[in-house]
Amino acid sequence: MEIKNGGIMMRIITISREFGSGGRELGKRLADALGIPCYDHEIMDMVAEKYGFDKNYISHVSEKDIRVFYPTTIAHRLIAPHLMTQQSVSIAVSEHQLIQELAQQGDCVIVGRSADIVLREMNPMNIFVYADWQSKLNRCKNRADGSEHFSEKEILKKMKQIDKERAAYRSLFCEKDWGKKESYHLCINTSGKEIKALIPAVADYVRLWFGQE
Amino acid sequence: MEIKNGGIMMRIITISREFGSGGRELGKRLADALGIPCYDHEIMDMVAEKYGFDKNYISHVSEKDIRVFYPTTIAHRLIAPHLMTQQSVSIAVSEHQLIQELAQQGDCVIVGRSADIVLREMNPMNIFVYADWQSKLNRCKNRADGSEHFSEKEILKKMKQIDKERAAYRSLFCEKDWGKKESYHLCINTSGKEIKALIPAVADYVRLWFGQE
């Protein structure tokens, strides 16, 4: 089923990404190139504002706290109640509701938040962004501000941990694995490449994929 | 190290593909869009002609006979001699030599033949083409001529077998797995899509990837 808004097919693009691969930058730049909004961290702020949660707490549990009970029709694994916290349940449900509301408003790019699964009934185009360890390490080092002093080993450990959490979060309500190419329509390896330089072609690809050119 | 020919960086694109995903068509059309040659089945004919092998026999062993000994610097797994045939060794070595010669002549697209590994010192751009089972099945049915009558079950079995052989062939001389996104620069899911419609964007992506735009 293709969801249409006023007769025009909606272009919903989701970006899943390995930590340090430049996926967030790719999402933002792609949205700019297509002239549509991009939702990333903003989603957490919106959830906090709309549902009255504490912003810092949301930031802590979102995509990190895998002890989430997800009692909707798209859930297929229910986690044992003793592993859950009521608030993390509420946040996940609120976040997913907001993602659906945002997508129903019109074309957009959504980064992370397992949006490819949350929105699957809207037939989004799902992109996965990845890179080799060295490129991800370089990207993390370049974007760290002067006050952060982590060793390469510490950064690598953190990168692996975050990707593991993303995969675990997704696995709660979807059988298709996070990061496996079969779960996505296009997988982009950014190793050694500038994201900015690739954007015009990625934007073209998205337009052609939605048959709007 | 970037191999250059007359001072211009060479654009070598390799296409690896799941059987039935449309990878061959994508390779041919991409080469046309870029105005460069595409080598696919022709390679086997050239090997037969150049080295005096029987065409039918080559067609039988190429990418199918995994009992190949590959005694060059890029080999990392040597198969027990009792599993080899001398002729399959000769054919694989000849094929790989020819692929290197073709690539050194100038920009080109090479489909299959583990060209991404054979040419890795020339820094090719490596694309993987895949699709879901239903799309691959439909593609296989559509391209079968009237004289072929296979059941869906038979086609699926054949598809799996061919992909398995491709993966096994590659595994002889490379640690990076066939079909894993980490082994490629771009992975394109053709499920439910017309290859032709996607080509302009893929060609753009290749041009940008090589920094020639």
Automatic annotation (TrEMBL), chains A, B:
Lineage: superkingdom: Bacteria
InterPro entries assigned: P-loop_NTPase
SUPFAM superfamilies named among the record's database cross-references: P-loop containing nucleoside triphosphate hydrolases
One Pfam family from the record: Cytidylate_kin2
Protein known as: Cytidylate kinase-like family protein
